[in-house]
Write a structure and sequence with these properties.
15 helices; TIM Barrel; disordered N terminus; 443 residues; eight-stranded parallel barrel
Length: 443
């Protein structure tokens, strides 16, 4: 990625368009009664078959891969790292020629951070991890300090599903502020030692709508819906120092115990993304607020509704209007199910991105999630055998082919028509083709 940086904390010029893919990297493994370890690398057999997965990555034609470290494994106790396994994977990824976007946190934390995202030591621990990895792996050129901060705050701080199991608005804000401090310290720690690294901030694109009606027709809970629509941007506003006395949510923050000194800290230590990534899934990213909430008026209180390309265009335009100075990327998308459905969304989502890019929106990337199938998060709270939670989201399907030594299923990787469609899109829009065309070489 071509960048123009001063202190590693400011936005860069737009990069050429990149066609990317990810590997699901959620790690929520805290021991808890009635809960199973949600380690997607083990559950998809990626921890053992990563060499094969790197080969699939190369075969896909992708320019980039979003790949995350299992923090709980590589940082088993304070001031000690175990990076032998990570060394092997990142060396292979570096040798592949595919650009690595390194996810530092994808929901889970090490057990020794007993408060998880609200542990007083969390921000410094993340900064330590970030600096250690940035110094060790020169092949990493892009870092995402934390994936989907707002979803982290929802599941961990508002709904109490994942550690630290807090609930309500207080819990949401406590988790979000902890996550935000971690992002700031991690980004600053990396920038000090690797000014060449670019930072891609990645957020979920939650939409709150009344299908078929006015966007404001949310009935007696309209104020809450307006609040939730604004809250989507709160993490990014915090880390970039935008929360001041004029911010729409400053009164809410103060009412829930967030003091002026804490808000001033974010203004003083503000960081900037080089690219702002938004994640969108047509089957889960849009919340139907046309009926009364089933409980407290929070995102999980309303059902999701399927929304297609119009919604994708709406969210890209909305995020660009909010942060017009920052290049954008669609950093996760996919439509799970039958292969034909995946193929249709591969083309439909890319068409939207390319059309908006042609109009002048600063879109620099598109990432399919994921290279291989993965398991629904419901596996953690469920009791059924692991294959029953498989989500057909991949370019390659996972097909059980035996049992691992730890008792989990092992999976063969089976190429689908989605992989063929992805490869065609990579040839058409990716960096390799752009490089070939700009050099005048025959295609």
């Amino acid at each position: 990625m071509s960048t123009q940086k001063n202190d590693g904390l400011t936005a860069t010029a737009c990069a050429p368009f990149a066609v990317g893919v990810g590997i699901e990297d959620t790690f929520v493994v805290e021991p808890r009664a009635g809960r199973r370890a949600l380690d997607e690398y083990a559950l998809t057999d990626h921890d053992r078959r990563w060499r094969e997965d790197v080969e699939l990555l190369v075969a896909s034609g992708a320019d980039q891969i979003r790949w995350g470290v299992p923090w709980y494994q590589v940082h088993p106790e304070p001031n000690r790292f175990d990076l032998a396994w990570t060394d092997g994977v990142l060396d292979a990824l570096g040798a592949s020629g595919v650009e690595v976007i390194l996810d530092l946190v994808h929901y889970g934390t090490p057990a020794w951070l007993t408060g998880s995202f609200v542990d007083p030591g969390y921000p410094a621990a993340l900064a330590d991890l970030a600096a250690t990895l940035a110094q060790r792996y020169p092949q990493v050129t892009i870092v995402t300090p934390t994936n989907e901060p707002s979803v982290t705050a929802e599941r961990c701080g508002e709904d109490g599903i994942w550690p630290p199991h807090l609930e309500g608005d207080d819990g949401y804000l406590r988790v979000l502020l902890g996550v935000a401090r971690g992002v700031v310290l991690a980004q600053r720690a990396v920038a000090e030692i690797r000014p060449d690294i670019a930072f891609w901030h990645v957020e979920a694109s939650r939409r709150f709508v009344v299908p078929g009606g006015s966007a404001d027709a949310a009935g007696p809970w309209a104020d809450r819906v307006d609040h939730l629509r604004e809250r989507v941007f709160l993490h990014q506003d915090l880390v970039t120092g935008r929360v001041d006395d004029a911010h729409p949510l400053v009164g809410h923050l103060r009412a829930h115990g967030v003091g002026d000194a804490e808000l001033a800290w974010f203004v003083e230590h503000a960081v900037r993304p080089d690219v702002l990534g938004v994640n969108y899934y047509p089957h889960v990213s849009t919340v139907d607020v046309s009926g009364p909430p089933s409980g407290e008026p929070r995102p999980s209180s309303w059902p999701v509704t399927y929304a297609g390309t119009d919604a994708l265009e709406d969210l890209v335009r909305t995020w660009h209007a909010r942060y017009p100075e920052v290049p954008l990327a669609l950093t996760e998308t996919g439509d799970p199910g039958a292969v034909d459905r995946r193929v249709d969304w591969l083309h439909a989502s890319m068409d939207v991105v390319q059309r908006l890019r042609a109009e002048g929106l600063p879109l620099v990337g598109w990432t399919w999630w994921a290279l291989i199938d993965f398991l629904l998060w419901d596996y953690r709270e469920g009791t059924a055998p692991a294959p029953e939670y498989l989500l057909r989201h991949g370019l390659w399907d996972l097909v059980p082919d035996g049992t691992r030594p730890d008792g989990l299923p092992s999976y063969a990787r089976v190429r689908t028509a989605a992989a063929d469609a992805f490869a065609d899109l990579a040839v058409r829009y990716g960096r390799r083709t752009a490089t070939t065309e700009s050099s005048g070489a025959p295609s």
